[in-house]
Design brief:
Layout (H helix, E strand, L loop, with lengths): L1 H19 L7 E5 L2 E5 L1 H57 L2 H10 L7 H15 L2 H14 L4 H13 L3 H14 L4 H14 L2 H13 L5 H33 L3 H4 L2 H13 L3 H14 L18 H13 L4 H13 L3 H14 L3 H13 L3 H16 L1
Antiparallel strand pairs: 1-2
Membrane topology: Multi-pass membrane protein
Pfam families: HemY_N
Subcellular location: Cell inner membrane
Length: 392
Amino acid sequence: MFRIIFIFVTLGLGLFVGTQFSDQQGYVLISVADTTTEMSVTTLVIFIVAALAALFLLENIIKRGFRATNATWNWFSVRKLKRARRYTNEGIIKLLEGDWNAAEKKVTRWANHHDMPLLCYLIASEAAQGMGDDKKREKYINLALEHDKNSLAIEMTQIRQMVRNKQFADAHSSLEKLKGRYPNNTIVMNLLKKTYLNLKLWSLLDELLPKLKRANVISDTEFDQLFYQAQLGKMEEVGEQKGINGLLSYWSHLPKKLKQDENIVELLIKQLLVQNGDSEAYVILRDILKQSPSERLLPLITQIQLPDIHPATLLLEGIVKKHKESAEAHSALGELYSRELRWKDAQQSFEVALQQRISISDYSRLADALEQQGMKQAAGEVSRKALTLLEK
């Protein structure tokens, strides 16, 4: 636009000057070697303007030609990009469907023309992982690294593949590095959970669980399950490494809230029994049952092997006096009476327990107590009832 205005302004000035000096046009002499050219000033001005117009026109034609070339090139490039994207999308669908071979072919076919080839190679790597082809998997990972060596997506893909291949030690090593850089990344935390579980890193799992819960990575139910699994794992480690004294020290350092948790108490008692710490287990269980006779903890007293079970019997007798409706207390007391060969007392305890709830094991013990007293017919009826319950 500026050039057109410039030409018209120049032409106008030339015409104006020409009319002003129409009777005094003068002349211009141009001599080159043996050639001379003469013309009026007006003619020279018109010639220059025409030459400029011709140059501007030529420039415009050349630019339009380049634009047409670029447009044609861009059209082909966009067409290839659209096709690459379409194949990649189809490849992702095939990957989700589990058609690994088709997924690999589609995403790699036009990967060089995709605006994000990294994505294509990562999908191809996942497809190779699905086919169990380790060489191809590594090949595509290396191709992805050529496009971005510091990509988190590549690291996460490699770690997920390690976990699926059960290379938990390698995955854990990589995840520990990522944990510092991405402490709140939910995928990193979830992968850490899997490696901690499989490597039995119970203390680390115990530390991670609150973060998993806050980030809604796990449900309340899974949190409870993993929490008690971690506590059991830690107790097993302490028991294996430090024995009974280690377990007692571990118990003494637990927060009060955990000491009141029936699940934790049960885990500790069982670990003490594994380490043959029956007397120590009885002392802890006795003190807890005196404060609160838990239906869950009461059966544990029958699992403890004591040289003298009379104190345990007295403990349970005191509990059933205060809590007559406690079926587990009567059942445990009946078991101890049986060990002391007090069959009549055992019979009464099992009968009271069975009035509160149905238990096949108590029916079996009751039948044994009746048989020991010579009441074979009654024992047979109780046994048949127990068999009927088993059949249901």
